[in-house]
Design brief:
Blueprint: H1 2-24, H2 28-61, H3 69-87, H4 97-122, H5 128-152, H6 160-181, H7 187-190, H8 193-207, H9 230-236, H10 249-274, H11 281-310, H12 312-346
Length: 347
């Protein structure tokens, strides 16, 4: 009787546990619906801001041809429909087409707005502060929408930790872009169309890194037993082909970050300082910052190339060997302590 009661109680507990699991863990259909809703909401945010920027440009330029960029914004709808139908709302791992379409549809109208604003500054037009305030809101909202939109988009194969790293990287990128665009307030810039085009070109290049999701670093999990000796570690680890560096995501992330933002920003700032005489405290600080980032990223690229493709054995062996030494030292201390205790007790 007691055994039957115990078995019944176990069955009841297992049933309760299964019910709790079904209540806590969402079903597959609910996850798909959530991903579809997030995908639609993010793309709606992209389209609304893009259309608002185009509309403001049409009002200032008084040219209806600017509405042609709205076709690119509407293309986000078709891209979203393809993503919802074919991928159930999940985004691709390394690239976001919706973000690229949003940048292409929104960046050129901001070009036109900024150039028009510079023309008004040259002409000393009145009521300039209000228009400048509207333009700054549209420019900064572009970066905010990029960050919030990437947060809303379904993460797909990306983990939550990797998504948080991507968003933090986007915040750091955006702060530098906002400061870089503030040089339009200087007379050296708004009075010279050539300098305006250089700054706008560098600004557009920096926006092209948002569609790429190369900040996700591949996780290399090395599980090596401490009981293995040095020769076994060397035999088990073969030298990879250096040509595989072309497929390394971390290397491409460094190349894109340097070529799309740090190198152009550093070049433009050096040009403004030495050729145009625009020397300010913020200009000096951010110039040094770009130079340091380029140096650190280049150093990191050399370290990754050395550890992964030139001398991978040393990189993979050093950590396990150090751990083994620590464990042996710890065991030796414990054994010496255990041997010392009986001597004390005998005394």
């Amino acid at each position: 009787m007691n055994e039957r009661r115990r078995s019944r109680r176990r069955d009841q507990r297992e049933e309760h546990i299964e019910i709790d699991r079904h209540l806590i863990e969402p079903s597959e259909g609910a996850v798909v619906l959530l991903n579809v809703g997030r995908a639609i909401l993010a793309r709606t945010l992209f389209i609304v801001h893009s259309i608002a920027t185009i509309w403001q440009t049409v009002q200032m330029e008084e040219r209806n041809s600017v509405w042609g960029f709205a076709l690119i914004a509407i293309a986000i709808i078709f891209e979203g429909a393809h993503t919802v139908v074919m991928r159930a709302g999940d985004e691709r791992r390394w690239f976001c087409p919706s973000v690229l379409l949003y940048v292409i549809a929104t960046a050129p109208p901001i070009w036109l707005l900024e150039r028009k604003l510079c023309e008004w500054r040259v002409a000393n037009k009145t009521a300039l502060d209000e228009e400048e305030f509207k333009l700054q809101i549209l420019e900064q909202m572009l970066l905010v929408v990029l960050i919030v939109g990437r947060w809303l988009l379904p993460k797909g194969d990306i983990s939550r930790e990797q998504l948080s790293q991507i968003l933090l990287a986007y915040l750091a990128i955006s702060s530098d872009i906002v400061e870089f665009f503030d040089v339009f307030k200087e007379k050296v810039v708004w009075s010279n169309p050539f300098v305006q085009h250089i700054i706008l070109a560098a600004w557009t290049l920096s926006l092209l890194q948002f569609p790429f999701v190369l900040t996700v670093s591949r996780a290399r999990k090395m599980r090596v037993a401490i009981t293995k000796n040095f020769e076994e570690l060397i035999v088990g680890n073969r030298r990879p082909n250096p040509c595989n560096v072309l497929y390394d995501v971390d290397m491409w992330a460094i190349i894109l970050a340097n070529s799309l933002q740090d190198f152009p920003f550093l070049s433009v700032r050096l040009f403004l300082m030495f050729d145009r005489g625009l020397v300010t405290y913020t200009m000096i600080f951010f110039t040094c910052k770009n130079a340091l980032i380029i140096a650190l990223q280049t150093y990191r690229a050399f370290v990754l190339f050395n550890d992964r493709y030139l001398h991978p054995r040393l990189a993979t062996i050093e950590a396990p060997v150090k751990r083994a030494r620590r464990v042996t030292k710890h065991r030796a201390k414990i054994e010496s302590h255990d041997e010392y205790q009986p001597i004390c007790r005998s005394k």
